[in-house]
TrEMBL record:
Name of the featured protein: Sensor histidine kinase
GO cellular component, one term: membrane
Any matching Pfam family: His_kinase
Keywords from the named record: Membrane, Transmembrane, Transmembrane helix
Source species of the chain: Paenibacillus thalictri
SUPFAM superfamilies named among the record's database cross-references: ATPase domain of HSP90 chaperone/DNA topoisomerase II/histidine kinase
Gene Ontology molecular function: phosphorelay sensor kinase activity
Amino acid sequence: MTNELHSPFADKTLKRKFFRKHLANMLLLCLIPLLILGSLAIYISDRYIRLDAQRSQEQMLNQYNELIEIIAAEVDSLSLSFDMDPKITTRLSSILSKTNYSYDDIEALFYLKNIIDVPANSKPYVHSVYVYYENDKRRFLSSREGLVDELSFYDVSWFPTYRNQTNFDEIKTEVRGIHQYAFEREPTKVISLYKFLSVKGVRSSKGVIVVNMLPAYLEKAYQTMNEQPDRQFFITDNEGRVIMHSGGSGAAAHVPSVRLTGNTDIAHFDEGLQHITVKKANRLQWNLISVVPRTSLFNLPAALIAATGLLSLASLAICAGVALWLTRKNYQQVYGIIHILESVDSPNPIEAIPQKADDIYALIIQNIVESFIEQKYLKVQLSERLYKMQALEFKALQSQINPHFLYNTLNSVYWKSVQLTGAPNAATQMIELLSEILQYALNTSKQMVTLNEEMTNIDSYIGIQQMRYKDRFEVIWDNVQPFADCRVLKLSVQPFIENSIHYGVEAKAYLHIKIKIRLRDSVLSVTIVDNGPGMDPSRLSEVRAVLMSDQELPGHVGISNTNKRLVLQYGQTCRIKLLSKKGWGTAVTLYYPQHVGDND
């Protein structure tokens, strides 16, 4: 018993128990009132500051909404003239369709242009106004150039938007650029508002009014209304596309994903560390979004939280010091009692036991019992056998379909089709070609094939596509026979032929694809050139970056996998080379070093 009472474990445990008990008592007396008062102050200040911040946000958005309503009123004013006035509608439609003009036509055209010149020249936010009625000469009236046509005018990118529109009841918004002169490095950014001129009782449009606004005016107006320097302001359309934001046209900012539903006109919510206010500009179907860091809105609650935290830490330190002093004092008392208990076996007289030590005695007895139980438990643990843990792993068994069953099934479908028609037909021809492609793909005995074998497989694929797009494209093989025995990666050329046909037949009336084969310095190059839609510089740079990073190109898994296979087989120098120009076409070059890693 003496050894148990003097063990370091018992001393530390007893000290910890005394310390925790005294510290808890002190914290209850000091921290609870402080936390209650601090929390109440934080809650009240946060509530009133939040309400004031929301009112400030709403006031700014309401002012901005009034400006947008003025802009919408200008569009409606033009609509009253060119959509509701039959004289103007009839006269302008007639002028747009004529080849030769009389003196009355010229005078009428001057009057009509003056109608759209008024807002274009008097309103600082208006860049230009176009009025178009359906006519076979594709002419329209411009506030800048007068009567123009689609073929000669510098700005016709709004035509596809007008053609593709299906909802003619609302004003459509589009952010786009206008290149007026060839020497301009950057296009003039405009926000185009489309007001469709509809025919009564018909779900179609007879024309459109396009009002091109300058976003710089909206940004300047925001600067005059804004009172918080760290606020971000966005305008988005009803599909979430950004129309304007306070960072300028070149700034990249995170746009909150918000959409007001039902009859909700304005809403407030928090997203991460931002407080967001959204207001609906109903006439143009715009969302006005104000984003303010919560830290700038709620400085006072943050200061109260910091002060409460510091006071709590100070109180904790004071309480810990007092608790430590009380612990030492009580421990000395307990140690004296333990010394009395130890002196029972001693020949010396027993020291007097303190009369007021009921709680201390209970604690000592409990400690002794706990120590005894712990030692007994350890002995039982040492005498018991250790059980081995068994981990059972269940493997999910999935039956895999033998790919050759697909080939056999196609053969069955082929003969059934012949049986039904009594002779080979277009369907059987396609099945036969597809069977050849599948057999070629399922042959896993070799990954490297000759150019002639790859070309034969591609011809089968082209045969299927020719039956689908009859007289819509042609494929020309250039200089194939001299290099027919050269080794290439299996199924590495076909994805690019497929890509050319897929995008080319949609964009061109007749697609030309040319496959050029060259051998230079023991490196075979295969170039696939088409006259398809091509890519603009930004898209081309994006695709090249993805191919260089070995990431997967969305929507083009076959091309990404082919690029990776070429790199793994031949090294980094044999990545796909890609050239493209919007409206001209695309050229893809694959490189196959000969006598290097070309064994099966």
